[in-house]
Write a structure and sequence with these properties.
Length: 221
């Protein structure tokens, strides 16, 4: 499903290159649940943002469903992302000028779904995440944990083929964190491919395999 070959990312400072990712070779099969682990600053989140096509300044090859992402322009990559990916951001990335319900509707609006159906789906997800009472609030009116729940809900609402999650339970109570991980487990069992950056050994235990990154290199899988 996903294949990375000799993928690298670096910053140029004068004559020097500072590498964030080095010679990344990684294959992820459909339906896999992969945890990405490693020390802070190792390149884990950078790798996730490359996979999610938010970061375009890299070299190497990236194939998704046999489509050469590395040969696409920004607009083409965005279309692939909207159609197939859901992303749980570490810093939420909710749209400040939209309510919770409107934020949840955004991924659905990219797909060919009638407005009445979209409203029903949003209502169902609000209920599943127990945030019905927050639907008309704006992100600034929510706590960090509530914003995280909305971020997870938004990532999964359109049943994406791939869920990318950057520390998805970082701001949640332990019981909420377990609920989210159990939800990821069910989504994975239903066919979603999940790639999750985490520091938590408990969260990583839900994955089929662990990819460890150290200083930008994949150390072991």
């Amino acid at each position: 499903m996903i294949s990375l070959r000799n993928l690298e990312k670096f910053y140029q400072q004068g004559p020097d290159r500072f590498y964030v990712l080095r010679r990344i070779n990684l294959d992820i099969k459909p339906g896999e649940f992969v945890a990405v682990m490693g020390p802070s600053g190792a390149g884990k989140s950078t790798l996730l943002h490359v996979l999610g096509m938010h970061d375009t300044a890299w070299t190497g090859e990236y194939l998704f469903l046999d489509h050469p992402i590395h040969k696409m322009d920004r607009k083409q990559r965005l279309e692939v992302y909207k159609r197939h990916f859901g992303f749980v951001f570490q810093s939420y990335h909710l749209l400040d000028d939209l309510t919770v319900a409107e934020n949840l509707d955004v991924p659905l609006s990219y797909r060919d779904i009638k407005k009445s159906e979209r409203q029903a789906i949003v209502a169902d997800v609000l209920d599943r995440f127990q945030i019905v009472g927050k639907k008309d609030l704006f992100p600034s009116q929510l706590s960090g944990g509530q914003q995280q729940l909305v971020g997870v809900a938004r990532a999964i609402i359109a049943n994406p083929k791939v869920i990318l999650a950057d520390e998805p339970t970082g701001n949640l109570h332990s019981s909420q964190g377990i609920e989210i991980m159990e939800m990821f487990k069910k989504l994975n069992e239903a066919g979603a491919t999940i790639i999750m950056v985490t520091h938590s050994e408990v969260n990583a235990s839900y994955a089929h395999r662990i990819v460890r990154i150290v200083d930008g290199w994949i150390e072991q899988q």
